[in-house]
Design goal:
Elements (H helix, E strand, L loop, with lengths): L5 E5 L5 H10 L5 E5 L11 H17 L4 E4 L2 H6 L3 H4 L4 E2 L2 H11 L4 E6 L1 H6 L1 H9 L4 E6 L3 H6 L8 H17 L3 E4 L8 H8 L4 E4 H15 L12 E5 L3 H12 L6 E4 L8
Parallel strand pairs: 1-2, 1-3, 2-9, 3-4, 5-6, 5-7, 7-8, 9-10
Helix pairs in contact: 1-11, 5-7, 5-11, 9-10
The protein binds D-glutamic acid.
């Protein structure tokens, strides 16, 4: 057993959707979260830049003595696959857990994947789904506008702008008859209701935060790293932009106000 914290990072605030699920699945674990709010978005950047940022983010968490690192970011997970080999602690991104969940969920073998431009271009989700079942047909769509919509609070399923953008991005997949859709970006679970209303209830939505939390619990268990202390864990947050901007937007992702310590760090100064 280990009382050390689980380290979670994301390009910004979206990874808090994974923290929300982690707290539910592993209530005794301490969590240290780093959101690279000064350099978000990663989803429009080159693979080289995403890898460099991801290495810095993971190194910062390691400097805090974490027992595991989770890249709660679709963009990092699909572009910095090499991170797992470079770290001295167990690591997971979101791709492996969500691909397995989608392959399990589909009945008609038609799975949709939505994510940032960098995630979709990498082809990582498709590759992993086909590893689970090579007969599955994968339909991918970049949805870059979903990120700023969510960050600016356009999240209601009744909002005409949200409905319009959902339709624009997902009409093709709907026509193709997918029965499962991977929400391959940490921001997307926030507009899951709007997506589900458009696609219909028969389409299963795979939430990367939820699946990654479950997979992390499994990884910790097999590595004998679960925290069995008889008390509720704590959350500590670090951000590279201002603490105030984090506090005001984090609620969208956590579903409640932040009740942990929030500190600012200079991520550019983390040595690789
Ligand atoms: N966190 C990113 C992801 O899950 C979305 C925001 C960004 O583009 O950095 O892909």
């Amino acid at each position: 057993m280990s009382e050390k914290a689980i380290g979670v990072f994301d390009s910004g605030l979206g990874g808090l959707t994974a923290v929300k699920e982690l707290v539910k699945v592993l209530p005794r674990e301490n969590i240290i979260y780093f959101g690279d709010t000064a350099r978000v978005p990663y989803g429009t950047r080159s693979r080289e830049t995403i890898i460099k940022y991801a290495e810095q983010d993971a190194d910062f968490l390691l400097s805090k003595g974490v027992k595991m690192v989770i890249a709660a970011c679709g963009t990092v997970s699909s572009n910095a696959e090499g991170l797992a080999d470079a770290l001295p602690v167990p690591f997971t991104g979101v791709i492996t857990p969500v691909a397995a969940a989608a392959a399990n969920a589909t009945k008609n073998g038609k799975v949709g994947v939505i994510g940032t431009s960098a995630s979709v271009k990498s082809g990582a989700y498709e590759k992993e789904i086909l590893k689970c079942n090579h007969k599955i047909k994968v339909y991918q769509q970049e949805c870059p506008l979903f990120v700023p919509l969510v960050e600016n609070g356009f999240i209601s399923e009744n909002d005409d702008i949200v409905k319009l953008v959902v339709e624009r991005y997902l009409s093709e997949m709907k026509r193709e008859g997918i029965d499962t859709l991977i929400l391959g970006c940490t921001h997307f679970p926030i507009i899951a209701k709007a997506i589900s209303n458009y696609l219909g209830r028969s389409v299963t939505l795979i939430d990367s935060g939820r699946e990654t939390a479950l997979y992390a619990a499994h990884l910790l268990g097999t590595n004998h790293l679960l925290n069995t202390a008889d008390k509720v864990g704590t959350c500590q947050f670090y951000v590279s932009d201002t603490v105030e901007s984090f506090r005001s937007t984090a609620e969208i992702f956590l579903g409640k106000s932040v009740d942990g310590e929030v500190s600012h760090i200079s991520i550019e100064q983390v040595e690789l």
